Amino acid sequence: MASAPSKLYADDVSLVVVLLDTNPFFWSSSSLSFLQFLSHVLSFLNSILTLNQLNQVVVIATGYNSCDYIFDSSLDLKRSLENGRMPVMCSSLLQKLEEFSFKDEQLSKEEPEGRIKCSLLSGSLSMALCYIQRVFRSGALHPHPRILCLQGSPDGPEQYVAIMNAIFSAQRSVVPIDSCYMGAQNSAFLQQASYITGGVHHKPQNLDGLFQYLMTIFAADLHSRSFLHLPKPVGVDFRASCFCHKNTIDMGYICSVCLSIFCKHHKKCSTCGSVFGQAQSEAASASDKKRKTPET
Amino acid sequence: MNNGGGKRINGGTEEDDDEDDVNGDLDAWERTYTDERSWESLQEDESGLLRPIDNKALYHSQYRRRLRSLSSIATAARIQKGLIRYLYVVIDLSRAASEMDFRPSRIAVIAKHVEAFIREFFDQNPLSQVGLVTIKDGVAYCLTDLGGSPESHIKALMNKLECSGDSSLQNALDLIDGYLNQIPSYGHREVLILYSALSTCDPGDIMETIQKCKKSKIRCSVIGLAAEMFICKHLCQETGGIYTVALDESHFKELILEHAPPPPAIAEFAIANLIKMGFPQRAAEGSMSICSCHKEAKVGAGYTCPRCKARVCELPTECCICGLTLVSSPHLARSYHHLFPIAPFDEVPPSHLNDPNNKLQRNCFGCQQSLLNPGNKPGLFVVCPNCKRRFCLDCDIYIHESLHNCPGCESFRHSKPVISNEE
Amino acid sequence: MPQVKIIAKNFMDMVASLPAIKLDMLYRNQFICEAILRSLPPLAKKYVLQMLYIDVPITSKSLQEWVIADGSSKHKVAIDRLIQLRVLEVIDRKKETAYKLNSTFQTNLRKHLINGGILPREPMPSNVTARLPTLEELDAYAHGQWECFLLQLISSGQAERSTSFSSSMMRIFQRGLLRQREKEVPRLTESGFQFLLMDTNAQLWYVIREYISNSEEQGVDQADLIAFLLELSFHTTGEAYSLNTLTDDQRAMIKDLADLGLVKLQQGRKESWFIPTKLATNLSVSLTDSSLRKQGFVVVETNFRLYAYSSSKLHCEILRLFSRVEYQLPNLIVGAITKESLYNAFENGITAEQIITFLQQNAHPRVAEKTPAVPENVTDQIRLWETDLNRVEMTPAHCYDEFPSRDVFEAASDFARVHCGLLWEDPKKMRMVVKAEIHMLMREHLRGNK
Hints:
The structure holds 3 protein chains of 3 kinds. Chain A is an alpha/beta fold. Chain A has 2 domains: 14-225, Rossmann fold; 240-295, no CATH class. Chain A has helices spanning 24-27, 34-51, 73-76, 88-109, 121-137, 160-172, 188-197, 210-218, 222-225, 280-295, and strands at 14-21, 56-62, 67-72, 144-151, 177-181, 201-202, 240-241, 248-249, 251-255, 261-262. Chain C is of the alpha+beta class. Chain C folds into 4 domains: 2-115, Arc Repressor Mutant, subunit A, CATH 1.10.10; 135-281, no CATH class; 298-389, no CATH class; 397-449, Alpha-Beta Plaits (2-Layer Sandwich), CATH 3.30.70.2610. Chain C contains 21 helices and 15 strands. Classes of the chains: A alpha/beta, B alpha/beta, C alpha+beta. Chains A and B meet through strand 3, helix 5, helix 6, helix 7 and strand 9 of A and strand 9, strand 10, helix 10, helix 11 and helix 12 of B. Chain B: Pfam families: C1_4, Ssl1. Chain B: A zinc finger (C4-type) spans 305-322. Chain B: This is General transcription factor IIH subunit.
């Protein structure tokens, strides 16, 4: 298991893994067009790379049907200088992105449409963490890694367990997850992710000024963060999603054997197969009473 | 070295006297080498040259073995894990615990690893509680009551490490039996005894006590630090626990950490139950409200009970107004990887990579590292049985030991076998 | 090593000390804007980016609000640096000061962020250039050149081939590093020894700085030189660039840079070109404190023996500074750290800390994995031997006090100073301690005054 590394570069050298939400269902309904969004993000990536020669940026696309790496500054800047221009970054990123969206779209044709048009955040988050582990393994000298989620799609409750797993793994290896949420409702998953891992969560008021938000909040390296006024969480949504209907709930029933969450009372736990003897109301109140005794 | 040598000898004789018992007659430089055993990491190759052992392959094969043994248990249908555990850790503080066959002494080693164990325990078993009991001078004391905060246990333990007198298993078991009888029926009752002594000095018939424990469904496990004892073995056999004896410090650490993951629940041990719980939201930083637990106005983030909207300061707790059990959902989610384990990946012989039909993926799907060894020789890699994505060995370990997600399965909508079958 | 920072800072100070017009001219060049941005402290970088798209001046008060109370000292450092480099322009209003980004700097940086960086010049197509050296060859070349230069710098006799630097130029580099008494072999000065123990980037900056300040005397514009050097660091390592794209001044300079190993010059059938090496591209990196470290080669054992896996003469010379080199194999130097060798080093002005950091930074990768990389008993002993030299010294002395007036006191202290006998004085309380040797003289003097 990875622990916090001991020797590092100078404090402000950072590796930013950006998770880009490319879900077409979201962008078609958003006030900011995907192209505008991209131009903000490209400038942001450029400025991260400008800040320090050793800074590194990796972009992973979070699609509707798949996720993939679309840019890695450690590879792309060294390669392909045929046209002699540094904006290889932009061109290679855009090219990969186009290929990716095409493939992503192809996959969706085979699929009946789901009820919530969420993107596969759990997948890209897992990939980002694998990448960061590789950076940790690469030796004592490596940049400070962090993850930035640029997410617009709503939470996909069926990803709940996977996203939580990823969050805890990030917490264990001290990788902060920053999140910038551009959708309509706030995302409970991203709020929790940033809260648990010590990252910053922000929901910009005005998407036209996205670049300024990105620069002001998310460009700060981990070292400078200890001196800066950054947005504080305006409450964290700690709701969970139930295992039976994938609803997001704030009150529910927990199986005492496996801790699965259900929104209604069941006779049998669908996860571990335990049979619950008593009726719902009794069980709840009885256990409440019993719990009180040992604690007082 | 003319100058240094003379000084060393003079200085050494003075210090030797008080250091002797701890470090034997080794010099400082000798000690570093005995600890590291650097010669053991060398290997002879075909031509008789010495090479460092390829630790990576070795490490990975060890890990595969571990994974296989775990998954073979897990495949036995749906395993029920006892996730709500009430565990008493019994620490033997009798004369025997001050022996120095473990360096610097048994009790120091025990304390060090109990600390690590308690932290790991709470990480893996949210909602569970631990209590500490010590045995000293033939009497068992309750050091800390059952509780959910690792810090308070560790602090209490570190202050009480003197050893003296005899040890008594029966006294400890009787004491714990009394405490554990009060816990709710869905909780799993467990005792973990770290036993240094080679005897037990009991006031009555210990066999009766063992039967009593068996009746109250307390699972007793023992880790011995000296030699195997019949009575411990008997106790564990009767109550369904595990009895192990540590060979050395690292073995002891391994043995104690084995008790951190939740044990497979035996259906009759605890009655399954549905518990009603609330997942409160965290209020904004700097907001001000009246806290229901301290009955005073407080500034700063608190949590709001979803049923009665009262404010509480900390989780997990019970709402003092409506009595609802309040937990933070991330707390619960820490244990979900036990419920939805990812299948072990299949090892693929390297020759497949050069197969012309199979030129799909040359990089690890997780970290993008090339699966080819330096010199374009194909290396060892693994494949997820569900999504058929390829991963490098390092990612394999990371995915199974820490992440508990398969990045390949997570990034494809149509192939989500683990979660979709819940519906 | 603290020296590294000072050197790097001095270079930026040099940039900062350029007249305003020249600075503005410098900022017309995109690469310089980028290099300057990179050289700033982290917080300052953040401010620049944050203010990039704000066109109105920002009051210092609102700027202060960006940081929390703990960071106010860092905030001040950042703002001072920005003003010093004229990146921030101060606008004084009636009551409060406001800041605004330098407009040239601002436009250039905006351009850079939107369009991405543009290469300073196009590399030559591969069909024109002959076989280009691989990156490893280039690295080897650069290090070879650099070591050759260093060897020549410290002892001109030892270098196998001499660089084309004129002896007057060489003497300028040696100024401050070597001290030559008449008819004597030049000896390294304190700073010279320290110079040798620095890492390559720091040494490079020292030399470049000397080079730039010297060129001023020869009528080349400092700003041009700085611009060219910074620009060079944005070229791609290993690519060939035509010499025709350079101005005359630059062409003259590139020959010197080739001697330092910053670029490799090659000649084709028609054209000639230069290939920047890692040393050149790392120039702007070294402006920040993070140093790219090369692989170490030294193993120190607990018995004070020292093994250096290196065939370089320079390394041998450096090790000789503080250890007794016992024998040399083709790729291995074996030595021992002894009291005598260390006393030698201390006499030359090298401190124990410098030796220890050198050993730690150049530790062989195998031992660098361990902590500590250098055995503790060795580092402790090095420090102990150093403190041995700083023992209390006993001087028989006499203390004088209760002077009748300040005049008498001052006259007495002057008298003692003239006779080199004043050890300590406290003018406020009118007390002084004087060496015993001049006690008699002193008494005479005081009596005479009465």
